[in-house]
Amino acid sequence: MSKYAMFGKLTAHEGKREELAEMMLASSATLNDMEGCIYYILHAAEDDPNDLWITELWESQEFHAASLRNEKVLELIGRCRHLIAGGSAVKVRPLGGKGF
């Protein structure tokens, strides 16, 4: 199995980015013990006051898929849904580098 990575973008409803980020960061402990999660980092876009970017690296695509079935992750998604205006993801294949 090869590592699995993704760049995600969440666009919060106008003026709700900080609330969304706080909710996501408060629940980030869920990922601390998540099997196969190497890193999951939340970023605030500097060029758009509503956008958050997420970088993820997993041991495999299977571990990522399993995380999306996790009860705590599903609960977090449900709690955050009303703050999210849209989102997208770019799946990438990591090749190497520092931290990899």
Any chance you could write out the topology, listing elements then pairs?
Layout: E1 4-12, H1 17-26, H2 29-32, E2 37-44, E3 51-58, H3 61-67, H4 71-80, E4 84-92
Antiparallel strand pairs: 1-3, 1-4, 2-3
Quick structural summary:
This protein is of the alpha+beta class and 100 residues long. A four-stranded antiparallel beta sheet has the order 2-3-1-4. A hairpin with a 6-residue loop joins β2 and β3.
Structure in words:
This protein has 100 residues and is of the alpha+beta class. The chain has one domain (4-92): Alpha-Beta Plaits (2-Layer Sandwich), CATH 3.30.70.100. It contains four helices and four strands. It has helices at residues 17-26, 29-32, 61-67, 71-80, and strands at 4-12, 37-44, 51-58, 84-92. A four-stranded antiparallel sheet has the order 2-3-1-4. A hairpin with a 6-residue loop joins strand 2 (37-44) and strand 3 (51-58). InterPro entries: ABM_dom, Dimeric_a/b-barrel. This is Antibiotic biosynthesis monooxygenase. GO terms for molecular function: monooxygenase activity.
